[in-house]
Amino acid sequence: MTDQINETDAIELATELTIAWLANPNTRTTAAEVPAFLDKMYSSVQSLVGGSQSPSAEDAEQTDYTPAVTVRKSLADPDYIISLVDGKKYKTLRRHLATKGMTPDEYRRRYGLKAEYPMVAANYSEARRAMARQIGLGSTTKKGTKAATSGTAKRKGEPKAE
Description:
This protein is an all-alpha fold. 53% of the residues lie in helices and 2% in strands.
């Protein structure tokens, strides 16, 4: 009984949508196109009402992505990483992946990569590490506090010892 109700609702909804489409003054159509549109509208509504898979669910099922290059080639040069999505060279993949709507974890899952797969080129990472060490990041003592606590710093107004 519920199948008949769902089918009747689907027919009525498809008919109403087709009437609304025809009522639009911007729609230019011939009489021959109306039955095809009604049939397409009915099948779309029936799939939504009947609970069958929608197109977005079919896209989610598709997990077989072909990488643009091999994983070995993507890491071959320490100056850059080649994206498996589009085959272009990047120093870091995070911003590139964000523009594609992916996180690094999604990227790794999509192409079956290990958790250790880098998102930053080796030489770029080393250059950033060296720069951070040079300015004192990561050290337990700061450059300014070491001189102030040792007592050798001169204070303003103290006479020079001769």
